[in-house]
Amino acid sequence: MTSQLVALCIDADDPQRLARFWAGLLGWETAGGADDGIALLPDDDTGFQVRFFPSEQGKTGQNQAHFDLTSNLHDQQRTVERALELGARHLDIGQGPDAPHVVLADPEGNEFCVIPAGNKFLAECGFVGALACDGSQEVGYFWSAALGWPLVWDQDEETAIRSPHGGPKITWGGPPVAPKKGKNRLHFDLAPPLNGDLQAEVDRLVSLGATRVGAGRAGGGRVEMLDPDGNEFCVLSPR
């Protein structure tokens, strides 16, 4: 039995504004709650929510993870235009003028890419094609074991996993891994398997290479942990 990926959580200066942007771009409905943040509910096979939480820590440097949006369901240029209409901006991270993908930043500077049609790696994925992460081969192996998602790419220290039920791929680009600067603005919320025990799942994740660092956000029921690359994630108590 393995953890379930419940949500990708994003720290935000203005959670409502950022949720409106991503809801408009993805076409997902929103739901609110003080403890659970403002959530976007997927209407496709993505399989996990996106949740926005208030944070007083501003963005410093490039995020460790970003969305790759495909052009399998929507035209690339139209997606870019829609993002700009909602408040995105073009971003230069050194991709060069001939890059086929378009790099954008959301209203709070979080990077994301719009991938052109015909990309073979994301051919079977929906609009949210991948969550592309900066990370080691070891951390790709860890998350494969933690979630029970098989490796769909493992070459030249680059790794990728995907749920057996479909949805986006999660990828790690391998070395060199950028030095971590402060707390990541994006992290995973996991839950133990159905009818599972929180402590037993925490112990299992530690055996796989994670580290427990705290008791979680205010309100309890969340154990804060670090993956082998030092990226934060939380394990939620069963409900």
Strand order of the largest sheet: 2-3-4-1-13-16-15-14
Distance from N terminus to C terminus (CA atoms, Å) equals 17 Å
Average residue-wise pLDDT: 93
CATH H-level superfamily = 2,3-Dihydroxybiphenyl 1,2-Dioxygenase, domain 1
Q: Using only CA atoms, what is the Rg?
A: 17 Å
Number of spatially distinct domains:
1
Under the CATH scheme, which architecture would be assigned?
Roll
- Roughly what fraction of the amino acids lie in strands? 25-35%
SSE arrangement, N to C: EHEEEEHEEEEHEEEEHEEE
Described by the principal axes of the CA atoms, the overall outline is globular
Helix content: 10-25%
User: How many helical elements?
Assistant: 4
Q: What is the CATH class?
A: Alpha Beta
Structural class: alpha+beta
Largest sheet: 8 strands, mixed
Query: Can you tell me the CATH topology?
Result: 2,3-Dihydroxybiphenyl 1,2-Dioxygenase, domain 1
Count of β-strands: 16
